[in-house]
Each structure stands twice: as structure tokens, then as C-alpha cells.
Amino acid sequence: MGCAEIISFDEVRARKHWTTLRQRLHARFDQWLDQLESALPEGEPTLGQVSETLWALRQQLTGGIAETIVHHMHAEEQQRSSRPCPTCARLLPARGPVPRCVETLVGAVALERPYFYCAVCCTGTSPLDEVLGLRAGRMQRDVQQAAVDLATEVPYETASTLFGRLSGIPVSSERMHTFTHQVAEGLTVVEMAPSRAEIDRRVAQVAAGRFRRPVLVLGIDGAYVPSRPESARGRRPGQARHRARRAQWRHEWREAKGFRFYLLDGERIVHVLSWHQVQNEHELGEALRQVKEAGLIPQETVRLCVVCDGAEWIWKHVQTLFPHARQVLDYYHCAEYLHKMAKAQYVDSVHAQEWVEATLTRLSLGQVGQLWLPDNTLLC
Ligand SMILES: [Zn+2]
């Protein structure tokens, strides 16, 4: 009996809590309606104009709702007057309130919360941020995840443009890159890769109606990418003015090595798997080995072909892991090597140019047995 009364008391309290929140949400909606009223075009708007107006204001509405819920549900945390230091347990008085604005997929959420700074440990914390599970920086996890989902499908520049247009949240291509890096950190190539069943499905799709097994290309290369040194990553302890002193990191480039598997389907290519990291040759070889050992490459249903720039370290890995793969030197590097060779053999640049052009033409016609070296001996 007493138990039932307690439950009903809790229910009443929960109901009251919810009623209060509803009233606040209604008030927030009313504020938004004022904005809408002044934004709607006068006269008889077209559906396109209505849609455009709502589209431009949608995040003020949804962000405002999120903000109202957060303020209502975490009223106590916003009133907190002290907390023990997480490191030394000294009791710290509240400072602030300190404003912070975070960006979510439903819009911006403005917070005002107490800040607790320990002068002994030189660290500051905001318990509300911890309770809300906020990540450092303005963009929150849902924005980051959506940006990464897009950036893994299309180039960073395109991802940045599309993301801004569709979500209403501007994210630079540089930031897209950072997000992707953060999400990918700690994942192995096998965890990032599609399953063997999915790879089989793509192979079967390309193989359908064809007599010969489809060609699966493994491209391996290195490229310079802009990177941020370790010293500029993450949060620094201490107050913002100290934290802001970061190392310069613009224009720092490091070599990323990576590989990509794709199927040839007539004129188009079908993506299968890619892995690019700032890594050394050994790490790249290790990632390739993991892919092979996880059984992700259906060697019996495809013709494997490796295209790369001819660097020795690449062939070494290919030879060990996929000894039966057809090895192909890519066209651009081949042309580059031919130019170097011609330069070494001919004094006359016109002759050198003629020889390179003739050789490239023979190569593109598949006349590999007809290649004359500059000293008039047959190459093979
Ligand atoms: Zn402390």
C-alpha cells in the first residue's frame, strides 16, 4: 500500500516536471513563430518560398528545443556551487557562469555553466559538459559522425560543400579531414573494411554476364598530406589563454602511404576497400597482410592486378603477399622514367622528346616487344 503511494507520488512529480517542460517548449516555439512571422514573404507565398523560409529557420527551432530540454533537465548542474577537484580532491568554488555554444545536427545549443578551476593542479572542469557527454570543440559527435560518413564517400572539398548545403552547418574541408582522422584513429584496416560477404556481392555484380573473372586492381602509392603535429593536437590543460598558444602547423606535410582495391567494370571502377595513413613502409605492409589474412580478398573469383609507381618497397610487399598478381607500372610513372632515360641518353632535347613519344605510343598500342632503347637495342 505504502509502496503504491510512493510510486504515485513519483508519477505526480514526473508529470509535473513534464508539464513544466512542455510550457517552456511552447514558449520557445512562440519565440520561433515571431521569427517566422517576420521572415515569411508578404502576400501569397509559393510552396517554394514557404519551404525556403522554414529551411533557413529550422535549426533555430530544433536547436531551441534541444536547448530548452537541456536547461530544464540539468537545472541542478547549472546551479552547482562547488565540487571537489578530480585530481587532488580539494573543494573548488564555482566560477562563472561561463558561456559555451556547441553545434549539433539539430542546431546550436547555448549553455551557461559553472566552471571549477584548481590553481594547484592548473586544470579546469565543467561538470555539466561531462554529464552531457560533450566533446572538446564546438562541433559535437553527431555532426562529426555525419561529416565523416560523407567524407569517406566523396573528396573532402565536395564533402565540405555538400555538408554545408544539406545540414546548414559550415565545416571546412580541413576540419572534415581532422574529424575523419579522429574517428579512424585506433581502428585497424580490417575493422574499417567492408565484410567479405559485401566484397563478394560487389564482385558478383561486376562478374554477372561476363565470361572472364573481373579484374581487381590493387593500387599502392604514397602522397603528401597536410598534417597537424602532435604538439598541436587535443586540449591543453589550463586556462584558455595558455591553451591558445599552439604550435604553428599550417604547411606541415607528411607522406601518407596507402592502398586501394577496386574492380574494373567496363569504363567505371567499383570501389572495394581503401586505407591511407601517415605510416611507414612496414606499417603499410602489415595492413596489407591483415587484409589478406582476414580473407577479404577473393583471389579465386577475380584476376588480381597491382598498379603502382615502381618503388622497390611496394613490389617487395606485393611479391610476398600476392605472388600471382599481375604487376603493372602506372602510366604516369612509366612516362616519368622514360623522360629520365631519354635525358640521360640524348644530348639533343628534340631527339629525346621524339624517342619518349614514340616509346609511349608503342606502349599504349601494347607493342611491348617493339621497344627500342635510345642506343638502338631492343628492350625486350
Ligand atoms: Zn586539484
Major beta sheet summary: 5 strands, mixed
Low-confidence stretches: 243-248
Strand order of the largest sheet: 8-7-6-9-10
Helix coverage percent: 40-55%
Describe the protein's architecture and organization.
The protein has 14 helices and ten strands. The chain has 380 residues and is an alpha+beta fold. The protein is elongated. The protein binds zinc ion (ZN).
Furnish the topology, listing elements before pairings.
Blueprint: H1 2-39, H2 47-73, H3 75-79, E1 82-84, E2 91-93, E3 95-104, E4 107-118, E5 123-125, H4 127-132, H5 141-151, H6 156-167, H7 173-184, H8 189-192, H9 196-207, E6 215-226, H10 240-243, E7 253-265, E8 268-277, H11 281-293, E9 303-308, H12 312-321, E10 326-329, H13 331-345, H14 349-364
Parallel strand pairs: 6-9, 9-10
Antiparallel strand pairs: 1-2, 3-4, 4-5, 6-7, 7-8
